[in-house]
Amino acid sequence: MNVSVYSREAIEEIIRRGDFPENTAVISYYDPELNHIDKDYTHVDYSNVCNDVFYCELDDLDLDYLPEKGYTYESFFPNANDLAEFIYEAYQSGKDIICQCEYGQSRSAATAAAIKEFFFHNGIDIFTDYRYYPNQVVYHKVFDALENLFLSGQ
Question: Distance (Å, rounded) from C-alpha 126 to C-alpha 105?
């Protein structure tokens, strides 16, 4: 399984060119805050290129800012367990995974690092790549959800 990280701009260009890879599942993050600024803002449209897409409307928040937005660590990212099931199904099906967020640096990088760490023990590769700034909260929520899924016997 290949796990890759893309920004919105980069993946939209790949879709536009008709170069979207086959046998791929997508985890697509989009920003709830941008919808308040731009009413036309929505997630990337994968409908013509991929049937296996998990959309996550999730703020890119660090641990210190969770309370300012009304979250606790426990209440932030409530669909992490569903995402873990999606990831595990993609893994079992032999699919590659694209992790995509607005800039391709934080939430998507954190998710890719958690996947790589859980399945291949090389998530550090994302953390040491200067192009990425993995969101620590997203990383831990995804990794923990994968671990809990595995421990529950899924």
Answer: 10
Topology annotation, domain 3-151: Protein-Tyrosine Phosphatase; Chain A (3.90.190)
pLDDT value at position 38? Answer: 65
R_g over Cα of the chain: 15
Tokens standing for residue 118: 């859980």
Dihedral sign from CA coordinates of 14, 1, 59, 49: positive
Please say whether the dihedral angle defined by the alpha carbons of residues 5, 10, 11 and 15, taken in this order, is positive or negative.
negative
- The beta strand positions in the chain, using DSSP E, are 3-7, 24-30, 53-57, 96-101
Contact 44, 8 (CB under 8 A): yes
pLDDT of residue 84: 98
What b/e sequence results for 12-27 when a residue is b if at least 16 CB atoms lie within 10 Å of its CB, and e otherwise?
A: eeebeeeebeeebbbb
d(Cα 89, Cα 91) in Å, to the nearest integer?
A: 5
Q: Which residue has the tokens 């079992």?
A: 92
pTM score of the predicted model: 0.94
Domains of the chain by residue range: 3-151
